[in-house]
Design goal:
With about 350 residues, this protein is mostly helical. It is built from 17 helices and 2 strands. Helix 5 runs antiparallel to helix 7, helix 5 runs antiparallel to helix 9 and helix 7 packs antiparallel against helix 8.
């Protein structure tokens, strides 16, 4: 018997508000409202396609999917198609495909990172174990490919399958740079582009592909998605050391405790003296962490201004993303996609 999972309710909100007081969820609500009908259809596809006669599959997949989140990536697919003037329905199945790819990577990420919590609830691997999480992640990847094939476009298949391969490469690359304080900014950005930006880019690109828009518009959406994804991840890495994280109901310093070498640490390591670099080697490379080490790490970041400078990097990529939208005529969708960039970066304040 199929397991019915209720997806987190989406409540679009078009209200205007002071941009200095709103977080990214507010602009996502606006964007969601613009594609409300299509997103409802995407949720129906997700519910149908995650079913299986093997009861554990919908139970475990639904545990993560029903937890909600902003559905940002599939919303980007729907919004990109609307931006391109597409009036068909192919974007619905492809948006569900994008969400399945994303969910599969989250299941695998939580296993690799040995995470116990995601969005404040127990991770699937904490509830059902690593083996089940990996295998259900594989199932969702397979479902995603079935949706790609059902669309019938070799170009769509290439765009989304390429992004899946790039994400996997990024995962392996991150594994290779884990706990390595010699990791440089270029290597860090390479991981970010693969793990996060690749799916943002593909999610946007397929909107232009289904609309059969000119190459220039397709490339513009690739640029928008890629640079938005980079900015998004950079800000996430800042938030891990920010008091704003606590306001969002998330713990501070998870990356530090796992020994992840993100840009704030890379800059602090490069700018520090030998005593400070010894601290980073002990806490990040050897994972020999003591009480007070997180606070000391944050004090070193403050001393060397690394969080502020990391946010400046995000602003640069945000500006590139915003420029990419210039090719499209003015519309509410275009305006909201531009606002999304600003709110993404404002999360870091």
């Amino acid at each position: 018997m199929a397991t019915v999972i209720k997806l987190a309710e989406q409540k679009p909100d078009n209200r205007e508000a002071d941009t200095t007081k709103r977080d990214i969820s507010e602009v996502v609500k606006r964007l969601t409202a613009l594609v409300e009908g299509e997103l409802a259809e995407v949720n129906k596809v997700i519910l149908v396609e995650m079913q299986s006669e093997v009861a554990l599959i919908p139970q475990l997949a639904g545990h993560l999917i029903a937890a909600g989140g902003k559905r940002l990536r599939p919303v980007l697919t729907l919004a990109a198609a609307k931006l391109c003037g597409y009036t068909g329905s192919r974007q619905v199945g492809l948006a569900a495909c994008v969400e399945f790819i994303h969910t599969a990577t989250l299941l695998h990420d939580d296993v690799v990172d040995e995470s116990d919590l995601r969005r404040g609830i127990a991770t699937a691997n904490a509830v059902w174990g690593n083996k089940a999480s990996v295998l259900v992640g594989d199932f969702l990847f397979s479902r995603a490919f079935q949706l790609m094939v059902a669309d019938g476009s070799l170009k769509v298949l290439k765009v989304l399958s390429d992004s899946s391969a790039i994400i996997a490469e990024g995962e392996v690359q991150q594994l290779m740079t884990a706990n390595d304080t010699d990791t440089g900014e270029e290597a860090y950005l390479s991981v970010v582009k693969a793990k996060t930006a690749a799916l943002f880019s593909a999610a946007c690109q397929v909107g232009a592909v289904v609309a059969e828009r000119p190459t220039a518009e397709e490339e513009a959406l690739i640029s928008y998605g890629t640079n938005l994804g980079i900015a998004f991840q950079i800000v996430d890495d800042v938030l891990d050391y920010s008091a704003k994280q606590a306001e969002l109901g998330k713990s501070i310093g998870d990356d530090f405790q796992e020994g992840k070498v993100t840009l704030p640490i890379i800059l602090a390591f490069r700018r520090g003296n030998e005593e400070e670099r010894s601290f980073w080697r002990r806490t990040i490379e050897e994972l020999d962490q003591k009480d007070g080490d997180l606070e000391h790490a944050m004090s070193l970041m403050a001393k060397h201004n690394t969080l502020t400078d990391t946010l400046e990097r995000a602003r640069y990529y945000g500006a590139v993303a915003k420029d990419a939208l210039g090719l499209f005529p003015e519309s509410e969708v275009k305006e909201t996609l531009a606002d999304l960039i600003d709110f993404c970066i404002e999360r870091g304040h």
